[in-house]
Every structure is written in structure tokens, then in C-alpha cells.
Amino acid sequence: FTSKTLMQSNNKPPPARYGGRHTVTLIPGDGIGPELLNHVRELFRFSCVPLDFEVVNINSSITSEDDINNAITAIRRNGVALKGNLETNHTLPPSHKSRNNVLRYTGLDLYANVMRCQSLPGVQTRHKNIDIIIIRENTEGEYSSLEHESVPGVVESLKIITRNNSLRIADYAFQLAREKGRRRVTAVHKANIMKLADGLFLQCCREVASGYPDIAFDSMIVDNTTMQLVSKPHQFDVMVMPNLYGNVVSNVCAGLVGGPGLVPGANYGHNYAVFETATRNTGKSIAGRNIANPTAMLLASCLMLDHLKLHDYASMIRNAVFATMNESLLHTPDIGGQGTTSEMVQSVMRNIKSSGPLTTEL
Amino acid sequence: QIFLLWKSLILGQLILGNFFAFQVHTVTLIPGDGIGPEISTAVMKIFEAAKVPIQWEERNVTAIKGPGGKWMIPPEAKESMDRSKIGLKGPLKTPIAAGHPSMNLLLRKTFDLYANVRPCVSIEGYKTPYTDVDLVTIRENTEGEYSGIEHVIVDGVVQSIKLITEQASRRIAEYAFEYARNNQRSSVTAVHKANIMRMSDGLFLRKCREVAENYKDVKFTEMYLDTVCLNMVQDPTQFDVLVMPNLYGDILSDLCAGLIGGLGVTPSGNIGANGVAIFESVHGTAPDIAGKDLANPTALLLSAVMMLRHMGLHADAKKIETACYDTIRDKKVLTKDLGGNSKCSEFTTEICRRVQDMD
């Protein structure tokens, strides 16, 4: 059932195109979000990408529910969004839910979080040549926000796993693996302890795996997975897992390839897609200082362009970013250099100009 | 005459020294399954060579059905532990379809082992991509996500309950700060996900903050679990003592073990209520190499060293630890998993030799 609808959505024409130009919702967020997204806009203008941004300003200081609903409507209207991270103040009462999550689940049903951790040339890391795709269930699991205090001093938090969502994400994983020519999918779980919940997830993965005999399937317990990732990361190809383990594993992998400034992330649903940096950091401490690494956000915008079928623009920008990455003098502090964000973006623009197509003035 | 005075002083010291050496501590030894017995023998041999004042009481902990049909550990084992308060345990086989729960779980419940402590220190001579790791993970071991409370709500929807209580959170936080103080560690970091699990991790965090107020000499910080993971694989030297609930502790302690070389070289200790402490090696039983004199006793040995420090026998601990690290660093006599091709007994003999040379 799910594979058919997925195929249909792949054949659907890209959304919101008027007069040959796309419109995409832009959510600046907090911390380094606004400055990085400004650079993205600058770069798109320079490269004459046929795309307009509809800016929706929600951040942690705005408290009204209406604003969140307006943002969701804007994303629904345009079908695609590019966003910075919204800070969650966890000293506020539990009814004040994480805004990022509200955007992801409520009404948008962005059930698959996909992150490709690829070692970039020119970046020094302990492990080389890593290329792992992580697919994380994005709507349920530990992030259900269902908690209550049954007696004073005793809190229960519910982790929900459903058959439908597990089948859905497993199917997405195998489809993606097949599409990208990957050989193996590994399910990450803790079914030896959480026998019913993770057991259900694992069982669903196995069921879906039987429908894809061309792709190998195995499973690994989450604590062993993290241990293997730091010692032998090359054994992993595509990984699929529930929400919380996805959070842990994606951060470990992002660290392995060089840090939060380098990895783009994407959230896909049947009808909508939202692109952001993979590790979802607000970068509060480096905001406004022109030292944030724009790579993750730039690559996320390339993922967005691919989604909109603007492949030529995506490749052009992506290649320019990789070329810039090769110059270690331009590296920002998070990967050991002393460059600034604007210098990096300028270099990307220069690389685009020299590769030929029509651009505006530098 | 001065010479005679000197001689009597030295003789007096020798007599006093022997007197203190007579204070022998009893430790319950649980060899375990698979390679358990041979690595336990290795540890006993090394302790004998180092003349550590410890008397071992070997016990078996295979589950038996007690009165009322409840599974429990044999009464001799329980009695020995309650008396000696200190235990050293090898790997235990996890039974599949044996009808009784895992032995580790049974031990945990019997002695209320609430804190799992894993010091992760880079071993000079056993090279990993990470050097200079020196941190301790302290994991709450009784509740959290491992409460085992799960239900099928309707067909196809399962809920698993994560339980966080004020009491357990306060207890683990207090242990973490005490440990930091007693072991000269400068900071304690609470690891949580309170942005998502507002009430449960929020409660855990609040208790840590409250306990931190009483330990102003130790620096207290808080960090999200994902940020810890991200930073840990880039720069593990920024972490000192980490305290966290059960699941995060499970993942992070194994992550840190991976940084220093895996479960074959990582020590671990479980602290319980009533002063009970059981130190153990956390690797598996390795049935494929059991009985072939190929096992690596390092994990159990380092856990035994941790045990000595817990008992206050710091000089003995240092001696054995140094002998072990020196042997690994020299690379002449190493077991297969460490990259050499010596037998377990040869590795043990080498450490014994170094220990004796130090005296």
C-alpha cells in the first residue's frame, strides 16, 4: 500500500509553480538560522534560481498559537520549506511543546527524516570515506510528548510505536536504498529490553525487507551500534530506526564526518518536505558573529532544489560548495579554520560564476 | 649504638607492616560462564603475585526457584555478598527461553544496584582514533526506559513506559557528585532530553540541580543528549563525569567504551544500596574461545582495580594497573584481540612478573 503511494508522489509534478518560478516557505528560526538563510537567499539571487521565498517569522519569542498555524498553512500552500532551528525553552511548562516538533508532526506528517553523512574532501576527520544514510522515524516513538505525573515524584513518559508508522518508515528506507543503489539496510533497535515496542518496529522492518530481496537486511542493538560507529563506521550503509535512536545515531554520524556545520537534513512526508541542517542546532553562542559554517544550510538548499526538480541548479551550487571546501584557508572555526561565513559564501559565488552560467553581478 | 637504633626502628616498622597486612578483606567472586572462569583465575593469580590482602569466596549465581515460585539467586551467594559487601563478577550467559530472567537483572534487583559506573580512560599502547579520553559515565540503573512496562493498546499500537522518580534521580545525582569529590574530578554533566521529554527528564534535571547546590566544589553543567553525542565523537576530552538516566547511560557508556577500544578493555562497577558494590567485566561470555586459553583478562582485571580503589587499597590498585598498562604498552605479550598472539596464561604471567618486579 505504501510503496504505491510513494511511487505516485514521485511522479507528482513539483508544487507551487507560477510563471515558471517556485515559491518556498522560509522560516529563519533562532540563533544562526536567520544569517545562514540570508546567505542562501543571496546565493539564489546571484545564481538566478527561479525561486521566491515566502518568509514566515516564527521564533521562540513569539508565543501565539496562531503564528504556528499560519506557518503550517504557508508550508501546506507552498509544499516545501527551508528552516532554521527554533529554540525550545525547557524551563517552561510541558504544555508548551517544542515548536520544531509541532511543525513536523501536526498536519504536515513529515514522517521520514533523512540524513546523508558523507565525508567531505578537504575536511580533516579521524575516519575517512564515510557515506551512511540515516532514516529516522520522525513522528512517534519517544517524541510523543505524552507524559504525566501519576503520583507526586513519579513521572511516566510514554513511548508509542505503531505498526503503520513502522511499516511506512521501513518501506521508505528500502525504497530509498533501491533508488540510490545501496546494498544493505540495518535496523537499529533495543528489542532485547523493550520487547513489545522495539520488537514491533523490528518485526515491521523484517516484513518489509522480505519484499526487497535485492537489498540485504540486518539489525543491530543501539548501544552496540554507537560502539561500532566510533570504531568501524564503514560497515554501515543505510540505517533505519525509531525517533530517539535516530537522534543519537545521526548526531554521532554528524560528529564523525566533521560536525554540525557540514551535514544537511531533510524531512519528507507524502505531500510536503521541509529542509534544514541535520543536527538541528540553534548555534546560539555563535550567532551574529559571522563564523557559522554555511555548508549544512547550503547543502540543505541543494536538497530542496533537487526535490523541486531543479537539478541543474542543485548540482551547480553543490559542486561550488565542494570546491570551496577543498580550500582549507576558508574553513570556518568549527572545522578548525579561521575563515568567516561571508568569505565562504563569496567563494561559493565565485566558483559558480567561473563555472559558466548566467549570474547577477558579484 | 645509632646503628642498633636504626635496626630496631626498621624491625618495628616491619612488624607493624605485617600487622596491617593481616587485615584481609573478603570478596565474593562470581567467575561466570564461557571465558569467565579462566579470566577469574588470571585475576586471582595476579592478585596473589601482588600480595593483595584479599580472600576470595567463589560463588555460583545460577537462578533457582525459591519458595513461592519466585526466581532468585542461590542463598549461599546472597549470604556471601551481604557479608563481604564487595563482589567481582565475570560474564554471565543470557538464557533464551530458560524461563527465568537474565541473571544480571536478578542481581540488580536483589542488591538494588542503582548506579553503573564506567570509567573510560585511553589505554596507552592500544591505539584507537581517540587519544586522551578520560571520563566517567554514571548511569541510573533501576528505572527509566528499562522499567519493562509495556502494553499493547490496540492491535498494532504499543506503548512502552519510561518511569522517572524523584527518589532514584536524587540518589544517582548524589552518588555522581560524591564520586566526583572522592576521585578528584572537577565537573559533573547531566545528560538529558528535557526539551522533548519535559516532565520526565525535567524531573531528573531538577534533582541534579538541587543536589549540585550541596556540592559547590564540583562544577555542574547540563547538556542535551544529542549535543553530547555530537561533541563526544569530535572531542571527548571536554567531558569529565557524566550522569544520566538508564537508556542514555546505556548508549553513552557503550559509545565511550568504543572510544577507548571496546568492551574487552573497559572496567565497570555497580553500586548498590547498603554499601554493596559489584564490579564486573561487561563483555560477553565468548563461548567460541572458552577453555582455549585465548581470552583477554584486561576488562576483569581493570574492574578488579576499580574494586581495590573502592575499598581504599590505592597502592595495590596502582601497582596492578601500572603492570597491566605497561604490558599492553610494551606490545611483546598481547592476547589476540589486542593484536598479539600470546595466550591468556602468558599475558597473565607477564603482568605477574611486572608486579613482582615492582616490590
From TrEMBL, chain A:
<dbReference type="InterPro" id="IPR004434">
    <property type="entry name" value="Isocitrate_DH_NAD"/>
</dbReference>
<dbReference type="GO" id="GO:0051287">
    <property type="term" value="F:NAD binding"/>
</dbReference>
<dbReference type="GO" id="GO:0000287">
    <property type="term" value="F:magnesium ion binding"/>
</dbReference>
<keyword id="KW-0816">Tricarboxylic acid cycle</keyword>
<dbReference type="GO" id="GO:0006102">
    <property type="term" value="P:isocitrate metabolic process"/>
</dbReference>
<comment type="function">
    <text>Regulatory subunit which plays a role in the allosteric regulation of the enzyme catalyzing the decarboxylation of isocitrate (ICT) into alpha-ketoglutarate. The heterodimer composed of the alpha (IDH3A) and beta (IDH3B) subunits and the heterodimer composed of the alpha (IDH3A) and gamma (IDH3G) subunits, have considerable basal activity but the full activity of the heterotetramer (containing two subunits of IDH3A, one of IDH3B and one of IDH3G) requires the assembly and cooperative function of both heterodimers.</text>
</comment>
<keyword id="KW-0809">Transit peptide</keyword>
<feature type="domain" description="Isopropylmalate dehydrogenase-like">
    <location>
        <begin position="23"/>
        <end position="348"/>
    </location>
</feature>
<dbReference type="InterPro" id="IPR024084">
    <property type="entry name" value="IsoPropMal-DH-like_dom"/>
</dbReference>
<keyword id="KW-0496">Mitochondrion</keyword>
<comment type="similarity">
    <text>Belongs to the isocitrate and isopropylmalate dehydrogenases family.</text>
</comment>
<dbReference type="GO" id="GO:0006099">
    <property type="term" value="P:tricarboxylic acid cycle"/>
</dbReference>
<protein>
    <recommendedName>
        <fullName>Isocitrate dehydrogenase [NAD] subunit, mitochondrial</fullName>
    </recommendedName>
</protein>
<dbReference type="GO" id="GO:0005524">
    <property type="term" value="F:ATP binding"/>
</dbReference>
<dbReference type="GO" id="GO:0005739">
    <property type="term" value="C:mitochondrion"/>
</dbReference>
<keyword id="KW-0547">Nucleotide-binding</keyword>
<comment type="subunit">
    <text>Heterooligomer of subunits alpha (IDH3A), beta (IDH3B), and gamma (IDH3G) in the apparent ratio of 2:1:1. The heterodimer containing one IDH3A and one IDH3B subunit and the heterodimer containing one IDH3A and one IDH3G subunit assemble into a heterotetramer (which contains two subunits of IDH3A, one of IDH3B and one of IDH3G) and further into the heterooctamer.</text>
</comment>
<dbReference type="InterPro" id="IPR019818">
    <property type="entry name" value="IsoCit/isopropylmalate_DH_CS"/>
</dbReference>
<keyword id="KW-0067">ATP-binding</keyword>
<keyword id="KW-0464">Manganese</keyword>
<keyword id="KW-0460">Magnesium</keyword>
<keyword id="KW-0479">Metal-binding</keyword>
From TrEMBL, chain B:
<keyword id="KW-0460">Magnesium</keyword>
<dbReference type="Pfam" id="PF00180">
    <property type="entry name" value="Iso_dh"/>
</dbReference>
<keyword id="KW-0560">Oxidoreductase</keyword>
<dbReference type="GO" id="GO:0004449">
    <property type="term" value="F:isocitrate dehydrogenase (NAD+) activity"/>
</dbReference>
<comment type="subunit">
    <text>Heterooligomer of subunits alpha (IDH3A), beta (IDH3B), and gamma (IDH3G) in the apparent ratio of 2:1:1. The heterodimer containing one IDH3A and one IDH3B subunit and the heterodimer containing one IDH3A and one IDH3G subunit assemble into a heterotetramer (which contains two subunits of IDH3A, one of IDH3B and one of IDH3G) and further into the heterooctamer.</text>
</comment>
<keyword id="KW-0496">Mitochondrion</keyword>
<keyword id="KW-0520">NAD</keyword>
<dbReference type="GO" id="GO:0000287">
    <property type="term" value="F:magnesium ion binding"/>
</dbReference>
<keyword id="KW-0816">Tricarboxylic acid cycle</keyword>
<feature type="domain" description="Isopropylmalate dehydrogenase-like">
    <location>
        <begin position="26"/>
        <end position="351"/>
    </location>
</feature>
<protein>
    <recommendedName>
        <fullName>Isocitrate dehydrogenase [NAD] subunit, mitochondrial</fullName>
    </recommendedName>
</protein>
<dbReference type="GO" id="GO:0005739">
    <property type="term" value="C:mitochondrion"/>
</dbReference>
<dbReference type="InterPro" id="IPR004434">
    <property type="entry name" value="Isocitrate_DH_NAD"/>
</dbReference>
<comment type="function">
    <text>Catalytic subunit of the enzyme which catalyzes the decarboxylation of isocitrate (ICT) into alpha-ketoglutarate. The heterodimer composed of the alpha (IDH3A) and beta (IDH3B) subunits and the heterodimer composed of the alpha (IDH3A) and gamma (IDH3G) subunits, have considerable basal activity but the full activity of the heterotetramer (containing two subunits of IDH3A, one of IDH3B and one of IDH3G) requires the assembly and cooperative function of both heterodimers.</text>
</comment>
<keyword id="KW-0479">Metal-binding</keyword>
<dbReference type="GO" id="GO:0006102">
    <property type="term" value="P:isocitrate metabolic process"/>
</dbReference>
<comment type="similarity">
    <text>Belongs to the isocitrate and isopropylmalate dehydrogenases family.</text>
</comment>
<dbReference type="InterPro" id="IPR024084">
    <property type="entry name" value="IsoPropMal-DH-like_dom"/>
</dbReference>
<dbReference type="InterPro" id="IPR019818">
    <property type="entry name" value="IsoCit/isopropylmalate_DH_CS"/>
</dbReference>
<dbReference type="GO" id="GO:0051287">
    <property type="term" value="F:NAD binding"/>
</dbReference>
<keyword id="KW-0809">Transit peptide</keyword>
<dbReference type="GO" id="GO:0006099">
    <property type="term" value="P:tricarboxylic acid cycle"/>
</dbReference>
